[in-house]
Amino acid sequence: MSCRSLKPDPDSYPEKHCGIALFRVHSNRYGRLQCSTPQALYRPLTIEQTLCARFDHDRGTIRLHDDQLHWTDLRLLAASTYPTHFIKIVLTIKNSSIMNQESFEYNRDQLQYLGFGEEIAKSLHTKMEQNLTEFTLDHTRKFGKDEMHSVLYFSKGDDAAKDLTFFNRFTSTLKKEGMEDLSQTFFVGPKFNYTLQERYNMMDGRAVYREQPVLERKEIDGKLKMVPTGETYWAWRALNFKEADQHGNFLPKMIRWHDQGKALEKFPIVGAEEKYMQARLLAQLQKGNQVEVNVLKDGQEVKTQMVVNAPMMRVDFYDGNGQKLNIKPVNRQAFEQSQKSDLSPQEVQRAAMAKATAAKEGTLTAGQAIPAAQKTAAEQKQGPAPQRKQAVKI
Known about the structure:
Residues 336-394 are annotated as: Disordered. This is DUF3945 domain-containing protein. With 394 residues, the protein is α+β, with helices and mostly antiparallel strands. The chain folds into four domains: 2-93, no CATH class; 99-206; 260-339, no CATH class; 345-377. It is built from eight helices and 19 strands. The chain has helices at 101-113, 120-129, 196-203, 260-265, 275-286, 332-339, 345-361, 366-382, and strands at 2-3, 20-21, 24-27, 33-36, 45-56, 61-65, 71-72, 86-93, 134-143, 146-156, 165-175, 182-187, 208-220, 223-244, 250-255, 291-297, 300-309, 314-318, 324-325. Strands 7-6-5-8 form a four-stranded mixed beta sheet, with no helix packed on it. Strands 9-10-11-12 form a four-stranded antiparallel beta sheet. A four-stranded antiparallel beta sheet has the order 16-17-18-19.
């Protein structure tokens, strides 16, 4: 190889015998060396360079190294001595053990959002580092006395260049004491997903109030599929335990009932007089949760579990043993008036402490302690009651 200064002519072509000259040297059968030019200088020349890609655990990124395993950067490599005629091509050797960090972070955050926790991210990282086309993860979570065991399914996308891994579906098995196990497969998409808590509530017989996509039947690749139209609506979603598909999955049941707030207002729920508290209760009920509330029954406060019965468009109450309670609706205005107190904040505090002391000593029941304490505080505020005069005979 010989090198001379580049001198472009008026047409931007290099003059003869200047710049970099490349020759091919070989020996013929007579032992003589022969030289030839493999590429003319005025034609584009490709220079290939092989780099190695390695994952930097400290930085969490992929870094490039040269053949001496020294760190390098594409911006540091000179493209050409004569850019208009030399083209640089970098060949990157992909290590099969290197995973897509962005894909891992997306799946990790999605699992946490759906309620599978943070610990499962370690198993996810291990599986994705193995660069598997498909893999599964196991997960178990307790809901009170019930246990939910799930198998999560992941697979690579069709675009090999992007190297993306997707969380497609999970099959959950609900284990309840004294009952046969119940299994259901739930699919995961980019939108309109339900949390694990909400899926448990569905398998436990309750409904969840969420935004739903409007679907229409379309033929794709010769098969009829339900495809979103882009429009949405709000409805309660439950499982129809009387109807299942060919895979054994229960079909969904959609209930359009939107005035649940009015149903709450009918019942004597203690502490739910304010709109703010009603909204908090409603938000929990719409997730399909059982909400613990105190209600007035026969003049006494009773601790109950309140749930939404979406198919019947009503609210139901149960005791601690799971037995349904008959809580009658009341006149809301009269109930709120009865819950109001003329006591000052300080008197409310004293009444609460008196209730706790009486309950601890066992002298009063929880339902009787409040009226007694409030009555004492009210009498102190109003002063002593007038003494009745007795008639005396002389």
